[in-house]
TrEMBL record:
This is Oidioi.mRNA.OKI2018_I69.chr2.g7944.t1.cds. It comes from the Eukaryota. Pfam families: C2. It comes from Oikopleura dioica (Tunicate). Residues 20-136 form the C2 domain. Signal peptide: none annotated.
């Protein structure tokens, strides 16, 4: 049987001493509650998005932005897409819940990609990786 005691912001777990089996001395551990941080990504607009000179004559891009934050709870979020627009105005806010900065590893990277919406599979137009450094 497991006992649970609440001590402020932490919870203590321990094996019940009345159990027939001998309690493991390493079975005690602390779980500290840490509230996630809000990480906002604002996507304003795209300018002169192109698939290439020849491809633009065949099919005008249907762009959207995909943002991947690997250390967030839901890692990838997307904006809405615009049909046949080379310079769309997204004006969208993407919210990610991330762990406290002390729990992050050094040089975490966020990926921002411009995608082209298609009927079957979406095409990658361009990609940018941004390294995030810890704030002190």
């Amino acid at each position: 049987m497991i006992l649970k005691k609440k001590l402020g912001n932490s919870v203590k777990f321990a094996a019940d001493s009345s159990a027939k089996e001998k309690a493991d001395p390493f079975s005690f551990f602390d779980v500290k509650k840490k509230n996630p941080l809000n990480f906002y990504v604002f996507v304003h607009e795209g300018r002169k998005i192109s698939k290439g000179m020849i491809s633009d004559f065949i099919d005008t891009p249907d762009p959207y932005i995909s943002v991947t934050v690997p250390f967030a709870a839901k890692t990838t979020k997307k904006t809405r897409y615009f049909t046949n627009q080379k310079s769309p105005k997204f004006n969208e806010e993407l919210l990610f819940k991330i762990p406290p900065f002390e729990d992050l590893e050094d040089n975490e990277e966020i990926e921002i990609a411009i995608m082209d919406k298609n009927y079957s599979t979406d095409d990658l137009n361009s990609r940018l990786g941004l390294k995030i450094e810890k704030l002190n």
